[in-house]
Amino acid sequence: MTNDAAAANAPQADKFGFEADVAQLLELMTHSVYSEREVFLRELISNAADACEKLRYESLSDEMLAAQASAPLVTISLDKNKRQLTIADNGVGMSREELISALGAIANSGTRAFLEKLGKDSADSGSSLIGRFGVGFYSVFMVADHVEVATRRAGEDEAWLWASDGKGSYTIASLALEDAPSVGARVTLHLNAESDEFLDPWRIESIVREHSGALSTPIDLVEEPGKEPRRIADGVALWTRPKAEITQEQYVDFYRQLSGAFDEPALTAHWRAEGRTEYTVLAFVPGARPFDLFEPSRKSKSKLYVRRVLISRDVDLLPHWLRFLRVVVDSADIPLNVSREMVQKSPAIAAIGKAVATRMLQELKKLAENEPGKFTAVWENFGAVLKEALHEDPSRRDDLFAIARFGTTKAEGETRTLKDYVADLRENQTAIYYITGDDAKRLAASPQLEGFRARGVEVLLLDDAVDAFWVTSALGYEGKPFKSVTQGAADIDAIPLVEDAKADEPPATDVGDLVGALKETLAESVDDVRVSTRLTQSAACLVASDMGLDRQLSRLLAESGQKGMFGKPVLEINAKHPAVAALAANLREKGREGAADGLHLLLDLARIADGEAPVDPAAFARRLSALIAGNA
Ligand code: ADP
Ligand code: MG
Predict the structure, then answer these.
(1) Which of 202, 233, 264 marks a domain boundary?
(2) Mean pLDDT by 10 residues, the chain (632 residues)
(3) What whole-number distance in Å separates Cα of residue 583 and Cα of residue 216?
(4) Are residues 625 and 484 in the same domain?
(5) Distances (CA, A) of 624 to 164, 243, 429, 595, 617
(6) Which of 223, 283, 286, 523 is the most buried (most CB within 10 A)?
(7) What number does the ligand 1 atom closest to the CA of 337 have?
(8) Does 346 lie in the same domain as 469?
(9) If you measure from the C-alpha of residue 627 to the centroid of ligand 1, how many angstroms do you get, rounded to a whole number?
């Protein structure tokens, strides 16, 4: 492999071929269409900071190294004319053998996992995978045609120059000590034609701030040759500072940088957990709703650091129903050298995620108690997401019921807690009543509510899609079951009417024959017909049968394509309504055939009141026209 030693005085360069899988990776990097190419800088800075930490660690047991080591520092230098970006560190450096094993093969297990995934899963294109893995050192070839690494291993007195254009081979030559860093490594990138942006100091600074500003190693930037270095990261991660030393403004800045948003956090929580796993958490509840909150692909966006090295920008740490939080977790208990993908599956992460969820619920509870106004805004933005936990995680139900806010028939434009609701139960009321739909205003006008109003019974107006689901699985609150006002027979007879309602109650008509005629005429559309106790103003309404699904839930399921399996509704009629009295009289006079139009219309009216279309819109139009013409 040795070059023929013709130029005896020139430093000898040995040529090596990359291992096969590196070659495959390089092929991908040089042809990458991955849009976030700036990850190369994160990788280089993370390697440099790692090297500093390694030296720090080795110095613990080696006095000679300790004497040599200076304060850790990473320096990025830009040279526009030469189109060069250099990143130098005073870390542990690499020996010749280490160069071969580290930069000729694949050292990074994350990179290995990346390649395996790539091999298995050809549907996932390489470029979409890059961002999800730490692809390590080789990512430099996304932005550079030629890369040099000048390095001197701490404690050794030889230096080396590694060089490659990323096309299958690299060289290693001995380097004169005066040309090498006194300790550490200096990586020089000859940027390719598409990578001008990385010569712009502002761009570099913002990338550093986003990806590495939290590192425990300070970072200097030399904007052009000869210029004084400028510190762009101070090496003190915000969350590692004592809370008392952090200003509100710094928290807000950090939040904005973290979220890329411009609002102020509604809640900031910063704590350190000690115990079996030690970690620090800095978590924010945004002040505004992120636009993609309900996109199915949106995950919780937690940043995971291990000892201040960014491991993942979107580790799946938190349950789905906390996906609106912006969270940074820094733990010392997760090994740095496992792949980013493995980190996601590690039990430590699961434990931390659970603990963070618990703590954040407590924080929300505190906010609800101490600053109800602020909490109401949080609930308006994220209540619909939090309520998913009622359905998905029964162990969290009590915590959520404690903070949940609902619109009800009692307080227009305001929200009430379940505690408020239960405190105002009516005499003989045994359940917490609710109605679900997608528009609280329309819900409030539902005929099914009339009887409840007449008895002063409060009804929760549940207008989020998730509501239709959790009400069926939650067992109740303080011993009171949740009961839909649109399902089953209303068991509210025992609850006394309020005074006003008693006064204007008209007498009931005998509707026995009418009920029978409706049952026969409408048999195809309804399961049953009965006299209602829940109506006072309207002539008829539809409810689900006792055994059937709540009507809103059936509608949601039908919308998602699951048709026909939910049973027919029950038609309830109001025996005290003049229209019902007229229908009964008409039936006695003309018989079932003659009165058929009116019978059909009664059902269609009930459907329309529920926001549904008449059974047969054309027939409905004809019957209604006839009615208007005076013939029905
Ligand atoms: P990883 O950092 O996950 O190990 P990389 O591909 O980023 O994978 O780097 C490969 C290896 O190269 C590192 O493990 C380290 O041994 C070595 N290395 C890279 N950069 C430096 C550096 N600046 N100083 C010392 N060693 C380095
Ligand atoms: Mg690395």
Answers:
(1) 233
(2) 45 86 82 77 88 78 80 96 97 95 76 69 58 72 96 95 94 95 96 96 89 76 96 88 88 78 90 91 92 71 77 83 94 69 79 94 97 95 95 93 95 90 95 91 90 94 92 91 87 84 74 93 94 90 83 77 75 94 94 94 93 92 92 54
(3) 82
(4) yes
(5) 84, 71, 40, 13, 10
(6) 283
(7) 3
(8) no
(9) 85
